[in-house]
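Model it.
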Amino acid sequence: MVNKKRLIFLTQSLIRINSENPAGNEAKIARFVKDYLSGFGLRSQIYEFAPKRSNIVAILPKRGSSRTLLITPHLDTVLAGKGWRFSPFSGIIHNGRIYGLGATDCKGNLACAIEAINSIIEDKMRLNYSLVFAATADEETGSRFGLIPLLDKGILRPDCALVLDADDFDIIVAQKGLIHLKVKLQGKRAHGAYPWRGKNAISLAVDILKDIKKFPFRYSRHRLLRPPTVNIGTIQGGDKVNIVADWCEFELDFRFLPGMSAEQILKELKKIILRHTQRFKIEIEGIQKDYEISLRHPLVEAVLKAMRDCKIKPKLKGSEGATSITFFQDKNIPAVATGFGCGGCAHSVDEYAKVDNLYKGCKFLVEFLKNY
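Modeled.
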């Protein structure tokens, strides 16, 4: 049976451990989790792919079964920032809410996963599959030292995965892909008093960006996601006010729907730029694939059933942003995400999670794991 007091205390304890990323140091919180798991008899192992970037993996084995299910929250948080009413590392409870950095993203979910496993072992429940628990590093800056190498090196090879990194019991079954890139434009330098003698790369960028804002996306409407988008994230150029800028560069963030092609988006971008200049370079900073799972997949149906059994109204959602579910598709591992934080609280000042939601979420996890 889920122990509410134990769950609350665990959530508070996790919040009080600083795991901000950057700078990126999950060693202390991973050690705490390892010790906590051993306290109820679950052995675990820490994996590091860079100094102090600790991931912790534990397995609750089932003899005679080759089936495996992974549940995975993450250990790191964003930076706390300033302006908090309550200390970001206090874990204070006020009006039924636990306040602190990571309360929603993702230490409340982490505590729920640990308490659910504790309850299963304590109640001597018998699962008909091997349960794998992985609390990962570096989720907030791309998972290069966390989930990605754990999958690439075959340390995690589950049949299915439930990612605990969402809010309000949403069930994330679709996700936009993304392209992050930088465009570098070259102009011609000249004296600012004689601009006709040069070619202003900043002016060139302004004209190109006007066209990019009307980007000709080709797509079919998706019932869980908004249309594709492009955001102009940064721009800089020129050396001095009285010099015609001979360089300018800007960064773009494309978000595209399942079924769309990143390659086609890049081709269209090049066409737009070529209408203005041939002296440019596009540097790809990152591409993350879109993701979608069938609503009839047994994993989705099991999550839906467990929520209904716990009297939680299921909400199938698409994610406009990037979550780690997309990393599983390269390994042909079906995955969905859910979580028990509060919408709008992640990455915010005075972040919090509702105590009742964490308790309800933990009970859902036990129900899901018991019957999966």
